[in-house]
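subagent[fold] <- orchestrator: predict structure for attached chain, return tokens only, no commentary.
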Amino acid sequence: MFLIPVVVVITVISVVILLSGLRIAQEYERGVVFRLGRYNRLCGPGLYWIIPLAIERSVTIDIRTRTVSAEQQETITRDSVTVKLNAVLWYRIVDPVKSVIAVADAPKAVYQLALTSLRNIIGQHDLDEVLQERDKINELLRQSIVGSTTAWGIEIERFEMKDVELPEAMQEVMAMQAEAIREKRARIIKAEAEMEASEKLALAALKMMENPAALELRRFQMIAEVGAENNSTTVLMIPSDFVSLSKSLSDYLHERRAPRPPNEA
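subagent[fold] -> orchestrator:
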């Protein structure tokens, strides 16, 4: 009479034990299976089965790219300037087995390594390099942690500075420097423009000397421009011949007034 219930109980228990060994890994997950404490195999994605009753144990690993925002770090550059930095790290697990066996708490280890590398790299560069050569600094940051994370089965995709905060005194100094540079550029541009204008005016004067009628035409154009402004300016027209005549007369008088040599007296 008790045979059937015992068989049923044993069957139910066996089915429950077998079902307890079923595991499901999502498409972005992998299961690292250990048998009696030793690594056995890598399973997933999808449905897989492990030996229950603590004979086999599965550790699920997410292999998607993770984004970690590093907390603000206060460090000193090579030229002794104190700066505060924020950075962002992107990484993903490419070898789930190593990420479980080679390191304990892989995300925390990567985060602490990133913070240390950030402080070390910034301390090896001047402030100007940190501000102006961000791409170079970001690549150095990534390369500085690639060696250690490769042994952990982790791939560093990007490691970049997000924000650089400077002391107020340094900001004022940099603002003064930028203003001085802008003023210098403005003066250089103005001087170059004046030089180019003088060269053009010299060429125009040579052209007018070759053709005196051009000077008269330019004079008429100037009178037209002055008259278009509807003002009370009085313009006196003096032909260029009078200018030439006055110059010749001045030269003649100068020659007459010049002292004669003693032998001609």
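orchestrator: received. Logging for downstream: Helices lie at 3-20, 96-101, 106-123, 127-132, 134-151, 168-210, 212-227, 240-257. The first strand starts at residue 22 and ends at 25.
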